[in-house]
Design goal:
Distance between the termini: 57 Å
Strand content: 15-25%
Largest sheet: 2 strands, antiparallel
Mean pLDDT: 88
Keywords: Coiled coil
Shape: elongated
Helix content: 55-70%
Protein name: Cell division protein ZapA
Strand order of the largest sheet: 1-2
Length: 94
């Protein structure tokens, strides 16, 4: 499996992870949200470890993928509705 090394700067600490290459684009799109999520949770310094940051990272990646799928499905549904509407208009105008 191809992996990509990514860095996250949270507070004054740098966290480095290897993620699947297929997750790289969703990660880059969600990177800011990961940091915002961690800052919002505001864990104590001793609880802010690789496990915590990695969980936030995976959650953001999955959320981003789900968002993309939802948008894609909505666009497809919109196209289908448009096609049906056109067919209905043609039928009614005959």
């Amino acid at each position: 499996m191809n992996e990509q090394v990514v860095e996250l700067q949270v507070r004054d600490r740098k966290f480095i992870f290897k993620i699947p290459y297929s997750d790289y684009l969703p990660f880059k799109e969600a990177e800011k949200r990961v940091i915002e999520l961690i800052e919002e949770i505001n864990p104590p310094e001793d609880k802010l470890d690789y496990g915590f940051v990695y969980c936030a990272l995976k959650l953001a990646i999955e959320n981003n993928k789900l968002q993309e799928n939802t948008i894609s499905e909505a666009n497809e549904t919109e196209k289908q509705i448009h096609n049906l509407t056109e067919k209905l208009e043609i039928f009614l105008n005959q």
